[in-house]
UniProtKB/TrEMBL annotation:
Residues 16-222 form the Cytochrome b561 bacterial/Ni-hydrogenase domain. PROSITE patterns: NI_HGENASE_CYTB_1. Belongs to the HupC/HyaC/HydC family. InterPro entries: Cyt_b561_bac/Ni-Hgenase, Di-haem_cyt_TM, Hydrogenase_cytochrome, Ni-dep_Hydgase_cyt-B. Signal peptide: none annotated. One of its GO terms (biological process) is respiratory electron transport chain. GO terms for molecular function: electron transfer activity; heme binding; iron ion binding. The chain crosses the membrane at residues 21-42, 62-85, 131-155, 188-205. It is found in: Cell membrane. The keyword Chloroplast does not apply. This is Probable Ni/Fe-hydrogenase B-type cytochrome subunit. It holds the Pfam family Ni_hydr_CYTB.
Amino acid sequence: MALHAKKAVGRLSVHVYDAPVRIWHWVNAFSILTLALTGYFIGSPLTSVSGEASANYLMGHIRFIHFAAAQILTVLLILRVYWVFVGGVHARQIFYMPIWSGRFWKEWSHEVRWYMFMAPQPRKYPGHNPLARFTMFLMFTLPLLFMVITGFALYSDGAGRDSWEYVLFGWVFSIWPNSQDIHTNHHLGMWVILIFAIVHIYVVVREDIMSSQSIISSMFSGERLSKDMED
């Protein structure tokens, strides 16, 4: 019986992620986790307790943490968009899709087959592969923007019509006059991002093991290490 094994015959290191992108990734992940946890309790509040409000201000603290995390996420998103224009080529990949490119869709199709275990080998990309770009744009970038817009619209409902939040985001109420509809859509947006996060974690671990490329460590070091394999 022949025993087949693969061994690495060469290593190639490519700088992929700039420091601002890596910092944004991890702080953004922590902010989203904080927003999801506090947002869940805002949508499903804890049981009310009797007594002086000042001594039972837990929900007030939860709301404050939620609003603070939202401010951090928004500022970082603005800075991240700025880095799209001044950073490296890989800094802009999740903010647009080259849908006009036949090559993009051909490579996208190959990645779909690879993730379905129908292709023997993945193709190596310095940054995100086409399927990753497609998924991140539709299930992360756009939903994140949606969450910022609807979140500040909801905040403006309490801040008042003379607040800067209402000036910038009050137009959302012309689409959904009932604030409860905005609450519901904001809540659904959270679940879209959480589902994406679960799939994202699975995929990066899978690719780190199966694709002969460093995926997880590249978001710490900025370097993508690829290994050429032979039988």
